[in-house]
Amino acid sequence: MSPVRILGIALLVAGIVALYFGWQASEAFVDQAHEALTGRFTDETMWYFIGGGVAVVVGLLLTLFGVRR
What we know:
Elements: H1 3-26, H2 29-38, H3 43-65
Helix pairs in contact: 1-3
């Protein structure tokens, strides 16, 4: 297995973990109250979602279409 695919798998796993932490953070009382008052999640929660989503997409692309020989 090439190092690029291993990196892709690592990014995929890290992205899934970040999305999970973002989901957990969005369910917290403080974040629910912030969303109810402002209409959006806290910045920390949004960074979990954005970073996790980007990591999942890049990891999936690297895993599926890594360096072809």
